[in-house]
Amino acid sequence: MGRAPCCDERVALKKGPWTPDEDQKLVAYIQKHGHGSWRHLPEKAGLARCGKSCRLRWTNYLRPDIKRGRFTNEEDQIIIQLHAILGNRWSAIASHLPRRTDNEIKNYWNTHLKKRLSQMGIDPVTHKTSSAGLALAPAWTPLVSTQLTHNTQWHSALAEAEARLSQLSAPPSLLSELQGSATTVPHPSAYFMRSWKTKVEDTLRPAFGTVKLEPHRERLNIDYSTPAPTPNITRLQKPLQDWNTALGIQTTASPFLEKYAAMAMKDIGFPSQTTNSVFQSKPDLLSDMFKEISERPGNHPVFGFVTDDQLGVGLENHFSPTSILQGPDSDSCSGSGDNSDCNFEFLHHDAPGSSYHSFPLIDGEYAAEHAQTSASMSVDIPESFWQAEQHAVSLLEDLKNMDASEGGGLEMIVPLSFDVVSNGGGFDPSQF
DNA sequence: AAATAACTCAACCGCTGTGAA
DNA sequence: GTTCACAGCGGTTGAGTTATT
């Protein structure tokens, strides 16, 4: 039995782009009568269109609850992760992105995300980093790699179940479900967090008051309206497109990440946090500025996060084992939609008592612009701070050693992108 | 300024699943 | 059990737009 044509081919029906008048007719009819039978709708609505065409126009474009416009970082992440789990099941993916249509997501994937992954050396089908890839390894890559592929069916079932639930009400996050499903996997990030809570917080408390690590996503909601005492915070700006070349970004291939990323992600509140890539800078390509940082005692390479909707061009919140104690009010380039205003801060760690710097960036024009102000924005950091920081470093060393047998390395701390937030919303060196 | 290439995304095509008759 | 209409889905197209030469 052949399939019957969806529309009567004897009648000349219009195809192609819809006119405003047609849109108006369709909207008016549906608002008044509902769509009912799509097959019969065109005639009733006075449209020389196939019912199927009307349905598509309505569901993909005219429906009042459709969100249009640029996809957010968070949406990007969700799409990529769900695609890794669900494949090209666009409607299932769309069910987790409120007000986005499957068609829009499909288009966005095909025109943006797929390309972006390829450019980063990641197979957009398998979501695995290709052997030749020397580009950024996104933080969402691990989530979809080894651990998840072992549980694909389970995850897929979860996703489907939740997709169904989402038809009825606002669902809990699929990803939180996924993460929850992996709780049997032990992971060093938990160890780190425990260590932080029991040791580092106490150490810092006398100097900072209550100091806690904030998941990255929460920082976005932190109220910085209380101005921090000046001149302790330096906010520098950088044309972000220079960062990749300046830093010589290289892939961080980490067995640890492969194994534990999903759990680590849970710690930082994934998927709401916007950090989505991690890299390890290649020391011999670093600028002098970053060499200084990476060659400091402990010899820790510089780690950082890349974020934003133009993956790979934004740099956010560098951190290394010693820079995790970055002062509060460190800035973010996420959420603004304008990456050109990404700010950047770093703790300098040459010696106890040294200064808190925001480093001028590599761009010559920029450096010149800020050469005068940067000198005046240093503040003295007392010994106690560096002691606390050293304490944190030692904990991280423990962490590193603990996982050496599992093929891990210092990369393991990568998902732990936290900020130190002290009471009052400001980093006040006078409190020392 | 013009030609061309690249990109975007609305719309279409054809298939599958579902449920009613 | 079969037929059929219909909704929904994913793949693909191509007109329009934007970027590049």
Poorly predicted spans: 1-5, 131-389, 402-432
Number of helices: 17
Distance between the termini: 83 Å
Q: What is the overall shape?
A: elongated
Which bin fits the share of residues in helices? 40-55%
Strand fraction equals: 5-15%
* Run of helices and strands: HHHHHHEHHHHHEHEHEHEHEEEEHEHE
User: What's the story with the biggest beta sheet?
Assistant: 5 strands, antiparallel
Q: Specify the oligomeric state.
A: single chain
Give the number of DSSP strands: 11
Q: Mind telling me the C-alpha Rg?
A: 25 Å
**Structural class category:** alpha+beta
Summed over residues and divided by their number, the pLDDT gives a mean of 45
List the helices and strands and how they pair.
Blueprint: H1 20-33, H2 41-45, H3 51-62, H4 73-86, H5 90-94, H6 102-119, E1 137-138, H7 140-143, H8 146-149, H9 152-168, H10 174-180, H11 188-208, E2 211-215, H12 216-219, E3 236-237, H13 243-247, E4 249-250, H14 255-267, E5 277-281, H15 288-294, E6 303-306, E7 316-319, E8 343-344, E9 355-356, H16 364-376, E10 379-380, H17 383-404, E11 418-422
Antiparallel strand pairs: 1-5, 2-11, 3-8, 4-5, 5-6, 6-7, 9-10
Helix pairs in contact: 10-14, 11-14, 11-17
The structure holds a DNA duplex (21 and 21 nucleotides).
